[in-house]
From TrEMBL:
One of its GO terms (biological process) is guanosine tetraphosphate biosynthetic process. This is GTP diphosphokinase. Residues 43-164 form the RelA/SpoT domain. It holds the Pfam family RelA_SpoT. Keywords: ATP-binding, GTP-binding, Kinase, Nucleotide-binding, Transferase. PANTHER family: GTP PYROPHOSPHOKINASE YJBM (PTHR47837).
Amino acid sequence: MTHWDEFLIPYKQAVDELKIKLKGMRTHFEKERTHSPIEFVTGRVKPIASILDKAASKGIPLDQLETQIQDIAGVRMMCQFVDDINTVVVLLRKRNDFRIVEEKDYISNKKPSGYRSYHVIIEYPVQTIHGEKKILAEIQIRTLAMNFWATIEHSLNYKYKGQFPEEIQLRLKRAAEAAFRLDEEMSEIREEIQEAQVYFTKNKEQIDKQ
Ligand code: 0O2
């Protein structure tokens, strides 16, 4: 086993556990037949190359990765509506299987790139064969529209290494504004959408029973 494999073990375990736990919140809402503020959950361990890039760009020494890079373990929670994000954050604050160490609100304060999302940094205890190890993990909570924009921008960023041609830069800015307006429009018709979703779920259950 390489040094990196060993280093990443608790992070992989944390991502697997957090995905199950946070997906469980969605299942609970579904069982109670109430609108789930969580649409879907994903997670990943940061690739080694990205960890090294981030450390180099921020001048973080390799023996301080654990404390200085907060998103080696990352989980994303996608929501339908902007208001759902706050509901999810309140639920996270009530949990006692981890401790919140920091919250970053890039929704009230969007990044200059146009990026919007709510980040919750947690200290998560992982049970390893050598005892408990507390690691940092980042939970990103965002709407489907915010996620769409961030995913596209992230891949373009990868391609252009942050040096976007002017045309692309402008289009991305416009796309960020469009995503913002989409979230606003959806919030306006939120009740209509939710009624339709309850109706749809009931109908589907009846068809499944037949
Ligand atoms: P990847 O590939 O997703 O892992 P800070 O020192 O707090 O300002 P830090 O530690 O980078 O900076 O934290 P921040 O800003 O909260 O960003 C952490 C992660 O948020 C990023 O991880 C991205 O996933 C996401 N993010 C932040 N800004 C942007 C942005 O402008 N566009 C997109 N698409 N995502 C963003 P990584 O390591 O950058 O990337």
